[in-house]
Amino acid sequence: MNLSRIDLNLFTVFDAIYREGGITPASKRLHLSQPAVSHALARLRELLDDPLFERRGNDMVPTPMARSLAVTIAGSLGNLERMMQRAGTFDPASSTRSFTIAMREAHEVTMLPALVARVHSEAPHIDIATVRIERRDLEEDLQSGELDIALDVALPLSAEVRREPLTSEAMVVLARRDHPLIREALDLETYLALDHILVTGRRRGGGYEDVALGRLGMSRHIRVRCQHHAAASEMVSQSDMLVTMTGIQARLANQQTINQMLPFPLEIPALESFLYWHANADADPASGWLRGLIAKRG
């Protein structure tokens, strides 16, 4: 197959359909008409001799060939886009770029307001979008350009994903102000005997503190799992349950509840957060500018 005879725009259409799950949302993403997207897909189907996407209800489900091509196409398009961006200069004051940052709810609450204020001050035309961390797809999304940057705890990623330490926070425990067993001090025995709330976006598994306890052959009973620290703090204020989180998360979550804030009753390393980006963005001045804003704390 001679690449010079192929319309490379067909791969842009393929990538949009794959990401959006249908012709209609792909056409909106690309600012093209639905017939134009359908025509491009028909040409690519003929070229590759494969249906690529099969309709199931309202969704366009990728075929095995489409799934095998998706990562390579997305990565190539992302590399081309970044190459074109680096070919010019980056001026924050006039740039109209959009950045997508993956982060956890805790980072969004503690860091996003200050970041947006800095962006608006230096680059009034730049848009910021934050999305949920999907750890299984994180490296692929950074490599393809679907994500510009990610903020998360230490993760086992390849050397192609760069990282920079961002924060280091000690763990603390919240207990209600008039807890019958806790009066401004918390020992390990009491901590393990009580029920706990775990703040997590995952469906199963424990938290950072559970890993630390497990290394010492200890465990606790998690009675409630929830997704937001403020909700956990409110539940703590109305029960005898405890919740464990970092100090900055606790201070923010506890603003309306005034629970006791106590040191974690075991010496464990502080919870570190990192800034992640792909190596192919190393030379992108816009990416470097954004990383600098995120790393600038206080």
Brief write-up:
By secondary structure, the chain is an alpha/beta fold. It has 11 helices and 12 strands.
The number of domains is 3
* Text of the CATH class of the largest domain: Alpha Beta
CATH architectural name of the largest domain: 3-Layer(aba) Sandwich
Helix residue percentage: 40-55%
Compute the number of strand runs. 12
Largest sheet, spatial ordering of strands: 4-3-5-12-6
Order of helices and strands: HHHEEHEHEHEEEHEHEHEHEEH
Structural class: alpha/beta
CATH superfamily membership of the largest domain: Periplasmic binding protein-like II
Q: In this structure, how is the largest beta sheet organized?
A: 5 strands, mixed
Global morphology: elongated
**Percent of residues in beta strands:** 15-25%
Uncertain runs: none
Mean pLDDT: 89
Helical element count?
A: 11
Radius of gyration, taken over Cα atoms and rounded to an integer in Å: 24 Å
**CATH fold type of the largest domain:** D-Maltodextrin-Binding Protein, domain 2
Q: How far is the N terminus from the C terminus?
A: 55 Å
How does this model look, in words?
- The chain is elongated and about 75 Å long.
- It has helices at residues 9-20, 23-30, 34-48, 64-87, 105-122, 138-144, 188-193, 208-215, 229-237, 247-253, 285-295; strands at 53-56, 59-62, 98-103, 127-131, 149-153, 161-169, 171-175, 195-199, 221-226, 242-246, 260-263, 271-278.
- The mean pLDDT is 89.
- Strand 1 and strand 2 (59-62) form a beta hairpin.
- It has three domains: 3-87, Winged helix-like DNA-binding domain superfamily/Winged helix DNA-binding domain (Arc Repressor Mutant, subunit A), CATH 1.10.10.10; 98-166 and 273-295, 3-Layer(aba) Sandwich (D-Maltodextrin-Binding Protein, domain 2); 171-269, 3-Layer(aba) Sandwich (D-Maltodextrin-Binding Protein, domain 2).
- The strands form three sheets. Strands 4-3-5-12-6 form a five-stranded mixed beta sheet. Strands 9-8-10-7-11 form a five-stranded mixed beta sheet. The chain has a two-stranded antiparallel sheet with strand order 1-2.
- It is built from eleven helices and twelve strands.
- The chain is of the alpha/beta class and 298 residues long.
